[in-house]
Amino acid sequence: MGERMYRVIGVGYVSLGLFFCVFFIDRLLLRMLVFSHWYFSFSSPLVFFTVYFLAIVVCSFGLVICGLVLVVRGDVKVIKISWILSIFLLASFYFYVIFLDSIMVVHSQP
């Protein structure tokens, strides 16, 4: 692949990572503000959701950094890492939309 292709792929990964960062941070902050009584009670679902969201946000920032490295310097190892991160983030997004959002709404009812 040429240098231009690496840059295009890098910009795509940066965009995807920023989307996931904004989406999951927004969801986490929205849940914390609306259902604050639930977030301040220490329970097993709370710990799971918090760790899940933090892992997703860290992976999203990792995808942004990998995309920036691809834009500056094309590296095959970075493409493989970015590909794995993007697949993980897409699967997590699907898992969140299908399962966790409905579970969180049910558990957050007073």
Task: Provide a descriptive summary of the structure in words.
The chain is elongated. It is built from 4 helices and no strands. The termini are far apart. It is an all-alpha fold and 110 residues long. α1 (3-34) runs antiparallel to α3 (44-72) and α3 (44-72) packs antiparallel against α4. The protein has one domain (3-107).
Categorize the overall geometry.
Answer: elongated
How big a fraction of the residues is strand? under 5%
Sequence stretches where pLDDT stays below 50 over 5 or more residues: none
Task: Return Rg in Å.
Answer: 16 Å
List the domain count as a whole number. Answer: 1
Helix content: over 70%
* Major β-sheet profile: none
The SSE order reads: HHHH
Total E-strand runs: 0
Structural class: mainly alpha
Query: Roughly how many Å apart are the termini?
Result: 55 Å
Q: Summarize model confidence as the mean pLDDT.
A: 76
The helix count comes to 4
